[in-house]
Each structure stands twice: as structure tokens, then as C-alpha cells.
Amino acid sequence: MNLPPKVTERAFARLAEINASGDVKPLRVAVAGGGCSGFQYEIRLDQAESDDLVLKGGGQSVVVDPVSLPYLAGAVIDFTDELIGARFTIDNPNATSSCGCGTSFSI
Fold first, then answer.
1. What is the pTM of this model?
2. Residues 105, 99: contact at Cβ < 8 Å?
3. Which of 39, 48, 62, 80 has the most CB atoms less than 10 A away?
């Protein structure tokens, strides 16, 4: 059985900061075809659907749709704040290669 993705405390904390300023929404992490490596991550605030996997922590939710779930099995969703910018990141053990920006990958 595939392991579900994990969300770090840092990612949940950043999501709480984002949601503190208004309407509380889950962070949706999805996989779509495209990008320079074949697949790309889509990360956005969205409503949860009834068939989504919901990951909870720190009073926040991250949702993954059933189609994206196999591509994200065992992945770690994190938040980084570096000199080049702040963003949610995904460390995906299923990716065989990825582009330099980290939003596109291949399996």
C-alpha cells in the first residue's frame, strides 16, 4: 500500500499565517500533465471535495485529489523561505527527475 503524503509543521504554520487574514481554505496540492518534465504541481487555496484525502495539522488542512494521490505517495509537503523566495515545496520520492524550479517532474 502506498504511503500518504506528509505535511510538515512548517507548511501547516505558513498555511495558518495565510488563512489568518481572511476566509480559511485548505491548501490543495495536485498533479497535472505539463511543465518541462511531463508533470507539474498545482498548489492553491481551494475547497475540499468529498473524495479528497484531507491531511490535518495545526488547525489547518491540506487536500489531495484521488487522481493526484498515487503521484504524491510518500511525498513531503513543506514550506521554505530562502533568499530566492518563499514557497511550498514537495519532496517527491516518485519523481525520477525534476526541473530546476521544482514545480515540474517526471516519473
1. 0.85
2. yes
3. 62
Which sign, positive or negative, has the C-alpha torsion 51, 1, 11, 104?
negative
Residue 63 in this model has a pLDDT that exceeds 80: yes
Cell digits of residue 91: 519532496
Phi (first) and psi of residue 43, to 5 degrees: -125, 120
Q: What are the two backbone dihedrals, phi and then psi, of residue 13, each rounded to the nearest 5 degrees?
A: -65, -40
Q: Print burial letters for 98-107: b (CB count within 10 Å at least 16), e (below 16).
A: beeebbbbee
- Which residues fall within 8 angstroms of residue 51, CB to CB, at 6 or more apart? 65, 66
pLDDT in tens, 23-39: 889 999 998 876 565 77
